[in-house]
Amino acid sequence: MTEISAGYRVVFVHAHPDDETVGTGATIAHYAHRDDTHVTLVTCTLGEEGEVHVPELAKLAVTDADQLGGYRLVEWQRACDRLGVTDRRMLGGIGTWRDSGMMGLPANDHPRAFWGADVDTAAADLVAVLREVRPQVLVTYDPDGFYGHPDHIQAHRVSVAAVRLAADEQFRPDLGAPHRVAKFYWTTVLKSSLAEGFEAFKESQDNPFAGITDPDDLPFGVNDDEATTQIVATGYGDHKLAALREHATQVPPDNWVYVLAAKLGADAVTTEHYILVDGERGKGFGTHNWENDLFAGVDRHHT
Ligand SMILES: CC(=O)N[C@H]1[C@@H](O[C@@H]2[C@H](O)[C@H](O)[C@@H](O)[C@H](O)[C@H]2O)O[C@H](CO)[C@@H](O)[C@@H]1O
Ligand SMILES: [Zn+2]
Which residues take part in binding Zn(2+) (predicted)? Predict the structure, then answer.
């Protein structure tokens, strides 16, 4: 049980080791370094089915020694150290849920695949975290898991169930006093940001968007006015890049994020966007009236 004294508390729920950095690394570093804020990361799987971009580690892959999950656990811990996150947990405990692989692959049917988890059963473990940490804010993916990966979709579903169940006083009183999360966010990315990044994508061999020239052809991304919140974590670009480097099996040296940072500086990777889907929107700024703080409008004494 973590003794939490900070007034502001946020829980990030991610699917695999590296998602915390790739999608929300600058935001996490920004809040983890605030004296008045406690960040909790809950990651749902060990990433056993991932690729291995480090040649000398190639045989850790699921097709050989099947040891990648244990190795990515260490990558994840080191990346969290770079971001400043000390409260990091695997959903249900280390090794409970297994990486399900990309949609439609046989790994989806592994007996421990997160994709096959009973949602309320998995949610109960997240309820225990929410009732302990008592965050005002929870961040996870949209219903499509941002890009359709089964573990991302399941992370969304388990988070939605856990937020509902944590507030239900009839649900598992043994897991702690009921808790209502004040603001529930989905991660997102702007199509306008993707268009700016396309040049960097082209220069990366690891270009996941090869052949795509129009952001509207990507399986993710929203129009500027669909986002509600922009976090500009100035000064934490180096933290995010250092954390990415810890995820070397997943993020090769020529990854487009490194290309972008090399061209435009580390702060080019410190702006991250979110959609508030439940809770009261706080004060906004600029053309799109975006919040500039996940805790905008939150009473720090809300527990
Ligand atoms: C960012 C993320 O969610 N990565 C997942 C994803 O990785 C993809 C997968 O290896 C795919 O085969 C590649 O073509 C693609 O480039 C990768 O992003 O899925 C993995 C397997 O479930 C998962 O381990 C990884 O964390
Ligand atoms: Zn992932």
Answer: 16, 19, 152
Q: Whose CA is nearest to atom 16 of ligand 1?
A: 208
**Residue 152 annotated as lining a ligand binding site:** yes
**Closest-CA residue to 295 (of 114, 31, 51, 1):** 31
CA distance 201 to 159: 31
Superfamily of 8-278 according to CATH: LmbE-like (3.40.50.10320)
Mind listing the pLDDT tens digit for each residue in 43-83?
999 999 999 999 999 999 999 999 999 999 999 999 999 99
ipTM value of the model? 0.99
Instruction: Tell which one of 13, 14, 16 to mutate to probe ligand 1, the residue whose CB is within 8 A of the most ligand atoms.
Output: 16
Q: Can you say how many angstroms the Cα of residue 189 is from the centroid of all Cα atoms in its chain?
A: 13
Strands of 104-262, DSSP E: 137-140, 183-188, 229-232
Shortest-distance ligand to the CA of residue 97: 1
Distances (CA, A) of 77 to 1, 86, 87, 252: 19, 9, 10, 18
Nearest residue (by CA) to ligand 1, atom 22, is: 101
Residue 269, φ and ψ in degrees, nearest 5: -110, 20
DSSP states of 17-31: TTHHHHHHHHHHHHH
How many angstroms separate the CA atoms of 99 and 234, rounded? 33
